[in-house]
Amino acid sequence: MKRVACITTFNQDYYDQMAKRMVETYVEFWPKDVDLYCYTEDMKLDVSAPNLKEIDVYEACGTNLKEYLDYIGTHFSRGFAYKAFAWIHACRTLDVDEIIYLDADSITYRPITHDWLNEILKPDDLAAYMGVTMQKGRHKGKQHADTGVYWINKLHPYANDFVDRYEHIYLSREVNIDKNRFPKPNDAYVFADCVQHALRNGYKVVDFHPERTAHSPIKETMLGKYFRHFKGARKKDPSMDKYIEKIKSGAERKDIDKQEKKNKRHAALKDLENKFRTWK
Q1: Average pLDDT over every residue of 99-117
Q2: pLDDT at 274
Q3: Separation of alpha carbons 147 and 86, rounded Å
Q4: pTM assigned to the model
Q5: Over the chain, what is the mean pLDDT?
Q6: What pLDDT is stored for residue 249 in this prediction?
Q7: 214-266 residue pLDDT tens
């Protein structure tokens, strides 16, 4: 059986806003022998479980994180830096086979099993992620990623090089300087850049979203059967708890299936010849 660990990161405000739900659903639905390492910022968890571990992100990531935060100041990308450096630290230090990153604004709503986890990555798969291709604007065609949920195979022979490249992009400040490669200085563009480099060198990566039809694709992937990722203002919705209960009950899935059937019927009707058309 694979040795798997998950990681996430948040501060007190984000925990109160959304991450508490993420932690609670993790405890509810994940195997008890798969640990979640929470990289926290100036806070202590108010919930405990055998598979919850807490790491002070400043102590763990040390000088590299501090110098980068000083460099970017109050830039909007500051929050993504904690995520990036926590992931690097986990890849360097956790004695496991695979690491899964879970965003603090995601939830798990169905039981995760070891059998399911064992199916995601084959031995020669380096990583698994949701690929995104920008569809409009000046960055149209640019490779991107939804890094709400993603895997890395630490046993892969290229894993250390992958993490080295990822870390170098931050330490060299390329993520902030090279606007062509990184239109926004966040971890999603950095991870996508490292994936593309690995693919060019012949390594295999699992893409949960090969169709590249959405910018926030989790519902359109196999991950959508287990996770939801609440981006932007949605996480501030006062009715979020009710919506999460709806997801966990399966009612939301029924609504989605119903809409998909409706969309398919509508598409089929559009393809029929219109014999009643009176214009040319």
Answers
A1: 97
A2: 41
A3: 14
A4: 0.87
A5: 89
A6: 85
A7: 888 999 999 999 999 987 666 667 777 788 888 888 766 555 555 555 555 55
User: Which are the contacts of 197, defined by CB distance < 8 A and separation ≥ 6?
Assistant: 165
pLDDT at 266: 52
Burial of 231 (0-12, 13-18, 19+ CB in 10 A): middle
Q: Residue 265 is which amino acid?
A: R
